[in-house]
TrEMBL record:
Belongs to the ABC-4 integral membrane protein family. It is a multi-pass membrane protein. It is found in: Cell membrane. Pfam families: FtsX, MacB_PCD. Residues 282-394 form the ABC3 transporter permease C-terminal domain. This is ABC transporter permease. One of its GO terms (molecular function) is transmembrane transporter activity. The chain crosses the membrane at residues 20-39, 280-303, 323-349, 361-384. Keywords: Cell membrane, Membrane, Plasmid, Transmembrane, Transmembrane helix.
Length: 401
């Protein structure tokens, strides 16, 4: 290209301005690529499936204001009464819900005193709890009523069979996760046999490193606390929640600690991630605006200093398009240099976050996107000053000192 040699000569002579612009582009590219990758990761975390029928599930946590010896009978009575409420599709006792923010976890080993394979979130509930939540059984069998254990007040007992998530099965048997069926695992040194495998069941903590590794036990706690998971008919969740509340409060001294939809529970669990996501978007928008403004100001200043040069070129026959092309090309070259340095900075920053914060490596596609974005941003930023320069009259420009 004819303009390339004079552009490189101009950059060499006026090095400070292009160098500052290239540095700004490099910093913008570095932040842009890493921030967009973090945004994608957080959006994937927030939107990932929990495994449950999210739109129709709600939880209710209340007390049992009865003598201890009546807990089990009253538990069955309450569940049957709620099941008969119009609009209730299913109800089960369950110690906590996925993404609820609280629950229990166990150390998982293959032998009583073996090496820890992983940590697992542990759910305990009625035998039909996985069906109430709408979980998908992808291998093996579900629980039967004979599998269920009801634990009396302050007593301890452990079932023999459990359901596990596919993520846990893949952790134990990465080559063929279905091999986990029938195998014995030890949860805090207590043996359990894997009876079935669930497609998904998020743990109580969304950002936990083992968020997808869960175990469901057929255990009901007959005590003063009554945690229930209820599944409403589609579109009737608000009405059903009110009906369940009315029924429970008919019992004297009954108190309701929680009564909330799963969608609200999930939103609360990811509240920090949502706030961080919004902050990242604000930073990106602000950075884009500041960079575009910087390119505009830098380009306008450089063009104003070269009015006489522009006028000479116009007098020698350069068209408006030639002048416009010159400054657009100059900006593209400086921006490309900034992008090259930005790639190096972005890789170094990503390697640091991978080694210190367990982030993932940024795919190459993000670098391509970042480069295209910065090139377009540079062209947009220089366009107005370049258009103004191309419209300079040769006579006016040559009289400008």
């Amino acid at each position: 290209m004819r303009d390339l040699k004079p552009i490189l000569k101009t950059i060499k002579v006026r090095l400070m301005g292009p160098a500052l612009l290239a540095l700004q582009i490099a910093v913008t590219f570095t932040i842009l690529v890493n921030a967009f990758f973090m945004i994608e990761q957080k959006e994937a975390m927030i939107s990932k499936p929990s495994g449950v029928d999210e739109a129709n599930i709600f939880r209710v946590l209340s007390n049992q204001p009865f003598p201890k010896e009546e807990y089990e009978a009253r538990l069955d009575e309450t569940i049957e009464a709620i099941r008969s409420i119009p609009g209730v599709q299913a109800v089960s006792m369950l110690n906590t819900l996925p993404l609820a923010g609280f629950g229990t976890y166990d150390e998982l080993t293959r032998t009583p005193e073996g090496r820890r394979e992983t940590w697992t979130a542990t759910f305990m509930g009625s035998t039909d709890a996985y069906q109430t939540l709408g979980l998908e059984l992808v291998a093996g069998q579900g629980f039967t009523k004979q599998d269920e254990i009801t634990v009396a007040f302050e007593a301890q007992s452990h079932p023999s069979d459990v359901l596990v998530t596919r993520a846990l099965a893949e952790k134990l048997y990465p080559d063929n996760w279905e091999e986990a069926l029938g195998k014995t695992i030890y949860l805090t040194m207590i043996p359990h046999q894997i009876k079935g495998i669930l497609a998904e069941m998020n743990g109580p903590w969304g950002t936990w490193f083992a968020a997808k590794i869960s175990v469901l036990k057929p255990v009901r706690d007959a005590n003063e606390v009554l945690p229930l998971a209820v599944r409403a008919e589609p579109g009737e969740i608000d009405v059903v929640m009110e009906r369940v509340k009315e029924y429970l409060l008919k019992t004297p001294r009954r108190q309701i600690t929680y009564l909330d939809k799963f969608v609200d529970i999930k939103a609360k669990n990811y509240q920090r991630e949502s706030a961080a996501l919004n902050t990242l978007w604000i930073v990106l928008l602000g950075l884009t605006f500041v960079t575009a403004l910087g390119i505009f100001g830098q380009s306008r200043f450089a063009i104003m200093k070269r009015r006489k040069q522009i006028g000479v070129r116009r007098a020698l026959g350069a068209s408006q398009w030639h002048v416009l092309r010159y400054f657009l090309t100059e900006n593209a070259i400086v921006t490309s240099i900034g992008i090259l340095f930005g790639c190096v900075f972005a890789i170094v920053l990503n390697q640091y976050t991978v080694s210190h914060f367990e982030f993932n490596l940024i795919p190459a596609g993000y670098f391509v996107f970042g480069a295209a974005f910065c090139l377009v941003l540079g062209q947009v930023g220089v366009l107005v000053p370049a258009l103004q320069a191309s419209r300079l009259s040769p006579a006016i420009a040559t009289r400008t000192v």
